[in-house]
Amino acid sequence: MAIPHPRDIQLAAVRWLDERYPFTKAIEESMYQRVPNFANAFYYCFGGMVFVIIVLQLVTGILLAIYYVPDARGNPAEAYSSVLFIQNSVYLGWLIRGVHFWGANILIFMVLLHMARVYWTGSYRAPRELNWMVGAIMLLIILGFALTGYLLPWDTKAYFATEVTIKIAGSPPPPQLGAFIKQILQGGPVVGPPTLQIFFTAHVFLFPALIILLMYVHFRFIRAHGISEPM
Ligand code: HEM
After folding, report:
1. Cα 109 from chain centroid?
2. Which residue in 110, 186, 122, 192 sits closest to 154, CA to CA?
3. How far apart are CA 136 and CA 123, in angstroms?
4. In order of start, what are the domains of the chain with their CATH numbers?
């Protein structure tokens, strides 16, 4: 029996997959989108840069989660000790943590630049209002990431900064609403182990799931409308 050429095996495999789902068509549609010339200006990159930083945050976050322990009981607490361990003992831990920290800061800056571009070119107008709203929700989620991530090292600065933020978040009238928000965020009468548990869950499970879903929606909208014409 003649030995098949590797290229024929490859083609047969692609054909087999395409008969079950149109993979080739889906990849071609996503890779070969024509982009208008005016979108070559550097400020049309900001949204893409936000996306790249979010991917970097997800990757470095997963690596940090391998060693991070979300336990605020005891003194020193495991949460604090595990961050010290990542920083000082884990191979390249200082780098992964540093990239995650600076990525978070640059992310907020880039999102604001991206929003400024969308605002400046009037791209929030019809038919893109819904996509602007999706963006606004993603901005809130990104701020939520920053708030919840800040507490995770469980050091003095994180503790007292979070105490202040929760106090502010729990201050809107009527008092019942403020008290309700405070209870949801804090998980008890003071900032303590339940607060860390809540913040960790939001930071590591809830917000990543939401942002991935909303980025998908954001990109589907962009594909449906095409990039807006300059004003
Ligand atoms: C997770 C954060 C975000 C990501 C990954 C993202 C990504 C992108 C990308 C890649 C584009 C294509 C054009 C460009 O890059 O400028 C875009 C367009 C757009 N974005 Fe975002 N974005 C985010 C947040 C936001 C926010 C916070 C807003 C506003 C509140 C927003 C509103 C829009 C609108 C309206 C468009 C369409 C612009 C047009 O057609 O010219 N986005 N976004």
Report:
1. 14
2. 192
3. 14
4. 43-225 (1.20.810.10)
Give the three-state DSSP class for 92: coil
pTM above 0.85, yes or no: yes
50, containing H or E segment: helix 46-67
**Within 6 Å (CB) of ligand 1, which residues are found?**
44, 46-48, 50-51, 54, 111, 114-115, 117-118, 121, 123-124, 128, 131-132, 135-136, 138-139, 211, 215, 218, 222, 225, 227-228
- Over residues 174-215, the pLDDT tens digits come to 999 999 999 999 999 999 999 999 999 999 999 999 999 999
Preceding amide of 174 cis, omega within 30: yes
Task: For residue 217, give both structure tokens.
Answer: 């929606």
Tens digit of each residue's pLDDT (9 = 90 or more) over 127-168: 999 999 999 999 999 999 999 999 999 999 999 999 999 999
